[in-house]
Amino acid sequence: MYTIPEIIQLAQISQYLADNDIAMGKQKDKLFGIKLYVERKSVSWAYLQDPTDTTLTKTSNYLYTLCGQYAAIAAGIAGTSGGIVPSPVSGVIYRTYEYFFVVGESGSLVLDGGNSFVLQLGAGAVFTKYEGLFQLTVNQVPLPNTTNVNYLGFQTSFNALTGDLTISLSNAQVFQNTQPVSINMAFAGSQQPIITPV
User: What is the full DSSP assignment across 66-85?
Assistant: First the structure.
């Protein structure tokens, strides 16, 4: 569980990510960033007044819940997800990206029985697979990013020269028809990933 100052930091990063999505037309609630700002400022003010205030636990938990889908990405950027986050490089902008497909349907990135697919992030892209910056969900179950091919989960392989990111299931897992798959990630690059359905 996060401390109250960590939740305040996650909310601040989540607000930036939400505002970015609003500007790109990916966030339907145009006031979401303002809601995060107001709640974050309220919790921050209360914490500065009295860090032992008994209402802070509930209000900070509400703030964390309000961050929603942005909390995991924010944790990866802030370095509070338990993984190591590289030092930010001046001028590098991390873009958030979400993609959803159903195996075997039009627009799918993989066929029934396949176990990998490729996203083209573009030459010069910077990709990190630390927890919180990349999440793969199959059948509404988040899979762990693992380096051991014998564990259930997935691995990523990134070619920095071409910008190709390969996502592979581990432990002889395969994608099956009608499985819903979602990808949530953050990367630095000048373009959105190129999606090439099979």
Answer: HHTTHHHHHHHHHT-SSS--
Q: How high is the pLDDT of residue 176?
A: 86
The SS3 of residue 167 is: strand
Q: Which residue has the tokens 């990135």?
A: 109
Q: What is the rounded average pLDDT for all residues in the chain? A: 76
39 pLDDT tier (thresholds 50, 70, 90)? very high
CB 43 within 8 A of CB 35: no
Instruction: Give one DSSP letter per residue of 33-99, joined into a string.
Output: HHHHHHHHHHHHHHHHH-TT-TTHHHHHHHHHHHHTTHHHHHHHHHT-SSS--PPPPTT--EEEEEE
- Say if residues 179 and 102 touch (Cβ distance below 8 Å): yes
- What is the separation of C-alpha 110 from the centre of its chain, rounded to a whole number of angstroms? 21
Average pLDDT for 111-132:
73
pTM over 0.70: no
**What are the boundaries of each domain within the chain?**
4-78, 95-188
3-state secondary structure of 12: helix
Structure tokens at 14: 């989540």
